[in-house]
Input
Amino acid sequence: MMTTRPIDGDDARDLLRQMQTIRAFETRIESLFKDGELPGFVHSCAGQEAIAVGVCRQLTSADYITSTHRGHGHAIAKGIALDAIFAELYGKEAGTCHGRGGSMHVADFSIGMLGANGIVGGGFGIAVGAAFAIGYQQRPDVAVCFFGDGAANKGTFHEALNFAGVHDLPVVFVCENNRYAQFTDASATTAVTDISVRAASYGIVGESIDGNDLLAVIDSAERAIDRARAGDGPTLINMATYRHSGHYVGDAEEYRKRGDVQANREQNDPIARFTVRVVAEGLLTDSDVAAVHATVDAQIDAAHAFAVGAPFPDPADAMRDVFTEGAAR
Ligand SMILES: Cc1ncc(C[n+]2csc(CCOP(=O)(O)OP(=O)(O)O)c2C)c(N)n1
Ligand SMILES: [Mg+2]
Output
């Protein structure tokens, strides 16, 4: 496994900025939700930022991603406007889905973000359909399906990976293996710890990596995406990670040990690990890092203020966008 891919100072700054943007967004959202300021339901991806950033770094806006209920990081890494995702979570008209989607249904087709999804395992078929369309249209693009370890036990996983394998589709399946599905440890629900071993059943390439090592994520994603673009078929990647927060904001977390959570936060934080590394290698200084954090905080403040100040949709428009143009009513 190559984990020493060379990056320069500009790369390091940009990668840190992206991961920190996701972390700061999630931290802010979590506190707003706890304060009763934010409506809906929120699942934080804090702790899993390296996967979203490392994978989406290899993608253009013509490539597709499908996401999960824990999808803010994927949307941000794919390039969604911060104002628009913040407004979406507030249910405002300026949101990416005009406030109709909220946290679990953020989507922005203009950048190839085909949607977060409240249905666990709901992204598999969408990603494979998108990859089939890419092949049919003979485009050079790829589709990436982000999903959790729990979703890997859904029937849709088998159907989608088998179909993708049979048709050699340009799709990459990225399992964010954070060791829990809702309130259940993976050992109680999943017969293997490495989801990528299942790739053999579908005649596709499987790989397992440390998903909290950003550079390992970049290497692995690059290999898989290059393979898909070259017409060499799908890849299933198991990316080991850990979620810092509960399943959702407000989870009492009785199913995991405080010490384990603390140890992962302190020793396995993808942002801290990356920061220590790039500072040690002389790519960034401590003041560069502080400047990135300050810039990100200012952007989150601005997006938050925009979302709070933005108007709600007009109730008269409640049925708008429910039916497509010309559909029977
Ligand atoms: C079809 C379906 N079944 C059950 C649920 C309830 N549910 C929401 S998240 C979740 C666990 C998902 O675990 P995993 O795929 O590992 O994702 P993670 O939350 O760890 O990111 C479950 C069972 C759901 N939303 N949809
Ligand atoms: Mg999980």
User: Anything to note?
Assistant: Strands lie at 64-66, 143-148, 171-177, 180-181, 184-185, 205-210, 235-240. Residues 148-150, 178, 180-181 surround magnesium ion (ligand 2) (CB under 6 Å). The mean pLDDT is 96.
